[in-house]
Amino acid sequence: MTSFEEAKTEETVTCLHLTFYHPGQEEKMMFRCLNFCNREQVRADDTAKFGRDSSVCRYNLMDTRVSRIQFSLQFYRKLHTSECGFEIKNLSKKTKLTVNQTELGHLNKIDLPWKCIICFGDYQILAEIQEGESVDYFETHLHLAKAPILQERCLPSLQPIPENGISPSLFLPQGKSPTEIDENEL
């Protein structure tokens, strides 16, 4: 056997891509402590904290309007599956955190959708999860947006949009749902 045949099987790593935007990022340089160049490994049992306190937070935002600890991301494996995910928790007592349209108060937490926009104050962060197999660690890959994320990206809609652009729920009696009909049956 060759060394190639005996080598361990490579496992893919879950990567959390985070794209940051703030309207004052050019003048205030609040992202100057973030590493936008390389992927960074984080142990699975570590909590990735974001905020202004460098002694506690792994990801520092240099802005006095950011809480000492703004929010955290916890990596976990979903029950009875091999899928992994992230839980986001708002740790700020003063600032609400919004994940897509869900508002989180202090100590509220939810599962991070596979693609979402996290907002607090003037900050916008696009989070995208690239799935992997490793349960020992995950990676973060930080990016800097030049334009506002909310105007630049379109997130997938939670409701299907019909081809005519008119929502069928406007015309259906309550409790009724649309049924699919073969076009030849009309």
From TrEMBL:
Organism from which the protein derives: Rhabdornis inornatus
Primary location class: cytoplasm
CDD domains registered for this protein in UniProt: FHA_TIFA
Keyword Isomerase: no
UniProt protein name: TRAF-interacting protein with FHA domain-containing protein A
Keyword Cell division recorded: no
SUPFAM superfamilies with a match to the protein in the record: SMAD/FHA domain
Family: Belongs to the TIFA family.
Gene Ontology, cellular component aspect: cytoplasm
UniProt subcellular location: Cytoplasm
Keywords: Cytoplasm, Immunity, Innate immunity
Stretches for region Disordered: 166-186
Pfam families: FHA
GO BP: any one term: innate immune response
The FHA domain, residue ranges: 49-121
